[in-house]
Amino acid sequence: MALFGAGGSPAVCSSLYILDSNLKTLLMRDWRGDTNPSMVERFVSIVNNAESESELKPIIYDDEIQTSFTYIRHRDLYFLALTRTNANAVALLTFLHRLVDIFTHYFKELKEESIRDNFVIIYELLDEVMDNGYPQFTEAKILSEFITVGAHELQAPKAPMAVTNAVSWRSEGLRYQKNEVFLDVVESCNCVVNANGQIVNSEVNGALRMRTQLSGMPECKLGLNDKVMLQAQNKSTRGKSVELEDIKFHQCVRLARFESDRTISFIPPDGQFDLMNYRITTPVKPLIWVEAKVTRPSRSRVEYSVKLRTQFKSRLNATGIEVKLPVPGDATTPEVKAALGSVTYAPEQEAMLWKIKTVPGEKVVEMRAKFSLPSVSALEDDGPRQKKPPVMVKFEVPYFTVSGVQVRFLKVIEKSGYQALPWVRYITKAGTYEFRLDHQSS
């Protein structure tokens, strides 16, 4: 299936060049016959004449020869696509990244030597992933079923159904004794609080992560408490419903069906994959709040008073909590007292690490610490104020999503009629979660 972008414009690639770190051609494949190697010399000239790499753009149009150069870099290799038509540049960039993924799948480590050592297999792959300049299926797992490494294996067996049936992400003939689907709803909370206790950034990034062990070619249907979906299906939106933003699906999802009635319908890949990613920018109450006061009772001493408050229901627990508090690089002789958990001084990180295995909701835990400072540190008060590192927090809250996203149903339908066991778990964890602080002296 060819790659298409906005407006239905196809990705058309006239030729592909793989260049080394010196911009010398290692390998080329011409599909349409309307380009020539001299055009690559113009691209090399553009790159060499650029004052810095940041000045270059991934898509360069040469008006004089009416040719577009689309390229990406992988380590010291350049993957360069030439086109003479009004092609979809984003789709071409996607194709080049997929090509890197395919070669990495085959050669494990993609570098100049692996290109030179595998010309035969690379040309076979290029003939399969591109037809007359139009990208075709680019799933490495499927390609490896009928293009295998090793001369004795390079016979062309029957093309798998995944190719002929346009389901490029799933192989035919899969069989499991026990058919199961595991779905993890994972949300990462990003929260930044300034020194005045004001939330300056708050968002939630979520993912539906699946692991499937299903026989045959199953059809899966998934329903969420998505507010728009419930309204589209004339179901009550009273109670818990959420508005998801920036939804991104795996290619297996039938987008037309989702756009019509918000049903998530798909034939899943085998194994692990992210079915859907989403973002929620509506501010949410931070699950864990940290108040850290830093005082200087004297020039040779610094004291910390830290409160950790869990701001979720008491029936839930936060686990794997780690609070990283910055301390001066020359601090010595720590004296620490924590109501819960353990505190270690990590001088190589210029920080204290306060670790707690588990804390229930609606709980306040305190920790105090004292450090000695060499007298020379007093000179810092007379110098310019430096930006101090923030307090960083890590945690997980199992059986919970901060956004309120819930799986309403997960159905598996397969023509053989087997029963599949769906397992759903929820977990919320810290993403970028930091509290900025300012030192106080007394």
UniProtKB/TrEMBL annotation:
GO CC entries: clathrin adaptor complex; endomembrane system
Primary localisation category: membrane
Biological-process GO terms, alphabetical: intracellular protein transport; vesicle-mediated transport
Claim: Protein transport is one of the keywords in the record: yes
Keywords for the protein's UniProt record, in alphabetical order: Membrane, Protein transport, Transport
Residues annotated as domain MHD: 178-436
Keyword Membrane assigned: yes
Localization annotation: Endomembrane system
Alphabetized PANTHER family for the sequence: AP COMPLEX SUBUNIT MU (PTHR10529)
Entry similarity comment: Belongs to the adaptor complexes medium subunit family.
Protein name, per record: MHD domain-containing protein
